[in-house]
Amino acid sequence: MLYSKIEGEGKPFIIMHGFLGMSDNWKTLAGQYVEAGFQVHILDLRNHGRSFHSDEWSYEAMVKDVFEYCQANQLTKIDILGHSMGGKVAMLFATTHPEIVDKLIVADIGPRFYKQHHQDILAGLNAVDFSVKPSRNDVEAIVAQYVPDFGTRQFLLKNLYWKEPGQLAFRFNLEVFNNNLDAIGKALAEDLVFNNPTLFIRGGESGYILDSDFDAIRQHFPNVKFETIPNAGHWLHAENPKMFFEMTTEFLKE
Asked: Distance between alpha carbon 79 and the CA centroid of its chain, in Å?
């Protein structure tokens, strides 16, 4: 079963992080959704955070996990939000289990195929040799050689934890990502459609969702609304959480 944090009372609202992320990335916003009247479930997807590791890693497997999570927690009518990789999971979940999903929110990812672009990040993570018992500063210095952006590094290094006294490790399953990296870019199958209300939010400076993607998104999600957070990149929910929260709650309360 997936690891989750459940807070609040009200309509169930599932939130799913992106690649190399975890539920903790959504902690602050989750608290705001609780105050807005939702029962919030922030998940760690398989091979991420505190959830289980598995050699099988695909969108189909992640959707199966979420479906089993909903069954175990008796969630029958939910709203669902996913960012990046989590957005792809949310899209596939909504189109294959539409009887469970009322509203869908997708943050800065489209249904199309995305070619691999995480090579530098993975090179930096793979360059860390935990057998020599590096400190947190040592790990950051190594990753910095490959990932110069401070914000991206801090996001990645949230995955560091003390596996045992004096021994750090990453929470995610790096070996499986190395072996199955193409899985993350997979497109949503062309025949999949979700007819309920859907919101796609993009970062104005991101480039993950282009104007030219709108027609293809409408084919999968005919009841779609588009929003853009200006001056925000791919981590739009962290760069402008106030606007992100306002856009999403307005949509959920409609």
From this structure: 15
